[in-house]
Design goal:
heterodimer, A: mainly alpha, two-stranded antiparallel ribbon, 72% helix, B: 169 residues
């Protein structure tokens, strides 16, 4: 009995007002925050690569290969937070073995596989095939074997074969853009289609997710490019960074407008859930929504990037700005995902009460696990940059 | 077709074939026989021990109580909602007619204020969801602490069943 009372006391200390028994504990924790976050980074990084390849913005050339490898590294890990969130992770494969057409999550498995294998893998493969054959001849040992294996033991680097690679790579990128939209729109759709939850259930959700994905992906590639260039002791291509910043600004405006529209619509229609959500936003989500996401993650970058469109300070100052801004944007988008996923579970469906999100540092769903899934993509990226350094590639004009 | 495209198609073909083979191997044998699930799951569930019986098995011995209950607001409640699972109880009674039940098979007799409060304690969320618009009835909501409060000084606090017959409240 004592134990029960102790448990009850713990449960009640989390709860304000009335919540249904199954709403006390949050079922979707920090790992489910990471899932749309990482998927968004993939889609965004790919869109940046496609700006160079499809939309012929040649000034972005220094980040093309980097963007692709970044997208690929994060894509390999994108499902891992979901899998490690499962109570029985060893059964995860069943979603692919016996998918049901009415399950959005089951179909996501195939959308994911399509994007990983047909878009990212093929584009990188066709882009690097010639270089891998050349590098195989120049290297020794394991590296040589890896290059040979990855190029499928082919040796044809005739101009005709290379031109064909370029052509197919182009087609793959063309297919890749709608696929990137599909991939991340789909993640938004999964949340947006949960009609029981008024914080999620909006038809704008896929579009908001998509644009916030682009924002985060572009910011990530920008940051990786700056850090990597510093590590390699090379000179930053400021024109390229200025252009990335310009696109980041444009997309951030769209993202901000869409999210603003969503909130204004919510306020204007003021449905029965409005009071509960209003209290949530000004209570438990105040810091993560207004301060971290709103001010630091959106308004400060918007104001800074906006100013840069009219007034260009010295390169030295711009370099500092371009290093700090992506960090703010990445933090802002992380908290956007946080506010969606965690925020959507903090209020009761009765609209009479709230619960609290608590998670530990260690454990299957703790912060350490989440940090691990954020660090691993960078380790994969480091390996890929060692194996397939974009700066050592033979220049190809994607014309 | 250039050699490298052929090999790439080969790799994808191997991947797809491997996937299809794995699918066949990993798919549970009875999957899809009756619908989008393992048919054997139904059989496996039948192996789980049963605890509850059907309402009529209570009536066999407790006819007068059933008659009372059918007249009152609790007519739609199964006996086991208040008294707990009674399969073993009824099986024993059926098999050994007239024999006294062992203590372990005697069912719970809810008579305390807390027992009635499980359904009848006033609750802001409950009123909304349990209001039955078809029969125009709702589960009576009582503030158990306020309604005829128990006199704590007396040794025997007032019970709900002192005034209300639980079978015909």
């Amino acid at each position: 009995m004592e134990e029960h009372l102790q448990n009850l006391y713990e449960v009640l200390s989390k709860v304000e007002g009335y919540v249904y028994p199954n709403e006390v504990e949050l079922n979707w924790s920090i790992l489910i925050v990471l899932y749309p976050y990482i998927t968004g980074l993939v889609a965004g990084a790919f869109i940046l690569a496609s700006l160079e390849r499809i939309f012929k913005i040649k000034i972005l050339k220094p980040t093309y290969g980097l963007a692709l490898l970044t997208a690929f590294s994060f894509m390999l890990v994108a499902t891992m937070p979901l899998v490690s969130h499962l109570g029985k992770p060893m059964r995860a494969y069943e979603i692919m073995i016996t998918p049901h057409s009415s399950s959005a999550m089951a179909i996501f498995g195939f959308v994911y596989l399509w994007y990983l294998m047909v878009v990212l893998f093929l584009e990188i493969w066709f882009d690097y095939r010639r270089d891998m054959i050349i590098w195989a001849n120049e290297s020794k040992g394991v590296k040589r074997f890896l290059y040979k294996m990855l190029s499928l033991w082919t040796t044809d680097i005739s101009p005709k074969a290379v031109a064909l690679d370029d052509r197919i790579g182009y087609i793959v990128t063309v297919i890749g853009i709608p696929s990137a939209f599909l991939l991340h729109g789909y993640v938004g759709f999964i949340f947006g289609s949960i009609k029981a939850n008024p914080w999620w259930s909006t038809v704008l959700m896929p579009v908001i997710f998509l644009f916030s994905a682009m924002v985060s992906g572009i910011a990530l590639v920008m940051l990786v490019y700056i850090v990597l260039t510093r590590i390699r002791k090379q000179v930053l291509d400021m024109d390229c960074l200025d252009t990335i910043a310009k696109y980041l600004f444009y997309i951030l405006i769209i993202d901000f407008t869409l999210e603003g529209l969503d909130q204004i619509h919510r306020i204007y229609v003021a449905e029965e859930s409005f009071e509960a959500l209003h209290k949530l936003v000004f209570g438990k989500l105040f810091y993560s929504l207004f301060i971290y996401q709103g001010i630091f993650g959106t308004l400060v970058p918007l104001a800074t990037l906006g100013t840069l469109q009219f007034y260009k300070p010295k390169a030295k100052i711009r370099r500092v700005i371009y290093t700090v801004l992506p960090v703010l944007v990445l933090m802002g988008i992380f908290f956007m995902r946080w506010n969606v996923v965690i925020g959507g579970q903090l209020f009761s469906k009765s609209f009479y009460g709230y619960t609290t999100f608590k998670t530990s540092l260690i454990g299957a769903e703790g912060y350490l696990m989440a940090i691990t899934w954020l660090i691993i993509p960078f380790l994969i990226l480091s390996f890929l940059l060692w194996l397939l350094p974009p700066w050592k590639k033979i220049e190809t004009n994607h014309d | 077709m250039p050699q490298h495209i052929k090999r790439l198609i080969g790799v994808f073909a191997i991947f797809i074939v491997l996937f299809l083979v794995m699918r066949q191997v990993l798919k549970p044998s009875s999957f899809g026989e009756l619908g989008h699930f393992r048919a054997k799951a139904i059989y496996e569930n039948t192996l789980r021990p049963m605890h509850y019986t059907i309402a009529d098995s209570c009536t066999k011995c407790h006819k007068s109580i059933r008659a009372d209950k059918d007249q009152g607001f609790h007519k739609k409640l199964k006996c086991e909602v208040c008294h707990g699972p009674g399969l073993k109880h009824s099986l024993f009674a059926n098999q050994f007619k007239g024999k006294e039940l062992p203590d372990s098979l005697i069912l719970y007799k809810p008579g305390e204020r807390k027992d009635c409060a499980i359904c009848h304690q006033i609750n802001a969320a409950r009123i909304k969801i349990l209001f039955d618009t078809i029969n125009n009835t709702m589960i009576k909501q009582i503030d158990v602490a306020e309604h005829n409060p128990p006199d704590l000084k007396a040794n025997e606090p007032a019970k709900c069943i002192d005034c209300h017959n639980p079978h015909q409240p």
